[in-house]
Amino acid sequence: MAEEVLLRFDEVTFEYSHNKPILEEASFSVRRGSKITLMGQNGAGKSTLFGLITKTLKPKEGNVFITKDASIGKAHQTLDRADFELTMTEYFARAFTQVPGNLKSQISKVLDAVNLTIPFERKVGEMSGGQQARLLLAFALIQNPDILLLDEPTNNLDQAGIDHLISFLMLYEKTVLVISHDADFLNCFTDGVIYLDNHTHQIESYNGDYFTVVEEIAKRIEREQMENARAEKVIKDRKEKVNFFANKGGKMRKLAKKLREETEELEDSKIVVRREDKTIRDFTIEEQNVIGDVVNITAVTTFYGHLPLVKEVEMTIRKKMHVLVSGPNGVGKSTFLRSLVAGTAEGATITEGVRVGYYSQDFSQLDFDQTVFDSLRSTVEDVEVMSAETMRSIAAGFLITGDLMGNKVGDLSEGQKGLLSFARLVLMKPGLLILDEPTNHINFRHIPVIAQAINNYEGAMIMVSHMPDFVKEIRIDETLDLTKY
Question: How confident is the model at residue 1, as a pLDDT?
């Protein structure tokens, strides 16, 4: 049974709009009980692949075969905003077409599996980002699926949460497909990789753990580049001979024709080397010139055992000061940032007139119904001064290309929403950056560029991040540790 093919793509072609393919004749298979990583650049089609598996999307050509009676559960990247007002019980009830009588018992079991303790009457929108990440996994697990689809499951999780998830997945006996940019996390349990090539729209399948596969891909690219270099040398030599013999006439001209045909065959047979994923361009977030205090904090609200506690603090944040807000999942970090932006934080205020650039972990700062272009334009203080061409150029640096400008923000991939958010910060020129998990959904290739831009930002900044390697690269002047209050 362990060798049974549970899922198979047979020459699947898919496109959202005419002549803009996401997949072209993609074929691969997944065996029962395997743990597979989906790799690919932001927008390459990883989430699209999940949509084809769950049947929410249909291929233009080809077929997706799923073994009879195999069930599918998907843990989404983020909670649907429409679910924010649901209680825990109401939220899990939506996982069933017919709600079972022992629903609360089943909820308790899956919450225990993901190491989450939350009252049943709690609204899901009130939970922290880390708690929501666990909740999304629990929602998939309660369906007891044969195929579990995980989309960026480590987003918002602290290290304890990631370690618990790794342990869970290593012991999980069913089939798992994971989208993640966390290489260390993936390497712990992956036994195969499916790579989506954003340039050729093809799929490549590899066996082995994540790091081994990445190394294998790098070596293959190097071999193919060397083979092409040798072919280029032969082609150049042949072309020189063709030019020489073509001017001789008679039999020499026939030889030139023969060599020309052989040269064309050589050019056609050159290997198409997989191009590396594009990385965003270096960028600068210019700051609004603010004199004096930017943020004053006299108290913070923390959560222990789900009860809010207001504690006194003395902190003043000024220009060029970078502050890290730390603490475990559920202590109130994201709640603090949201209330600060909304002006409802008890004991914390932003000075009037300060322009705030907010990166929310759930992209609540974005209007999903706006077009991408309008989302960019809405951040510009004086649209008459900045041309549309400048806005498009800045967006292109974040791989938000012209063909995406007319799309709705809600139709972008989560990674593209993250890059759009950074493009908006560049256009905004804020006096205060508030960054809540700014590496969520972002391709690892872009992270060093983002870290450099944040380091070079001359305004005030408050940040939450559970990515230790990223935090190490950021200049932090002071830490607001919520566990100390």
Answer: 43
User: Against a cut of 0.85, is the pTM above it?
Assistant: no
Query: Could you report the per-residue pLDDT of 146-183, keeping only the tens digit for each?
Result: 999 998 888 777 788 888 888 888 888 899 999 887 77
Query: Which has the closest alpha carbon to 154: 124, 134, 128?
Result: 134
Token representation of residue 459: 């305004």
> In the prediction, which pLDDT does 212 show?
83
Q: Which two tokens stand for residue 212?
A: 């081994």
The per-residue pLDDT for 453 is 96
Least confident of 53-62, 304-313, 374-383: 304-313
